[in-house]
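Per reviewer request, we include the raw input and output of the structure prediction for the construct analysed in the revised manuscript.
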Amino acid sequence: MPEAMFWGTGRRKASTARVRIIKGDGKILVNDRPFDEYFPIPLTRKIILQPLTVTETVGKFDIRANIAGGGSTGQAGAFRHGIARALVKFNEEFRSLLRKNGLLTRDPRMKERKKYGLKKARKRPQFSKR
């Protein structure tokens, strides 16, 4: 009988991460690449592993993720969100712990749209009195 697989979808900024976890020995693959290769910055890796650290399940799950859209920071946030959601599906008792640490809340901050007459969302052209 195959092992149970738990899914979680995480989002942040323009990024979406589809994460699935299976009981295993801690292998993490992102878009079919090793975790350390896909996220070379140690701080980013620490952010991603927060849900596992909080629930004390580091090294107990094999994680596979498909991540699309956005940049590295948004992708890291989406991955973290997806892992947290998948852990809740695995064990409902993790919900309060993850919620208390703010890992189940989707970060609502998005890029502000550009306005006409301005160079960016808020940057104005240089003012000239004469």
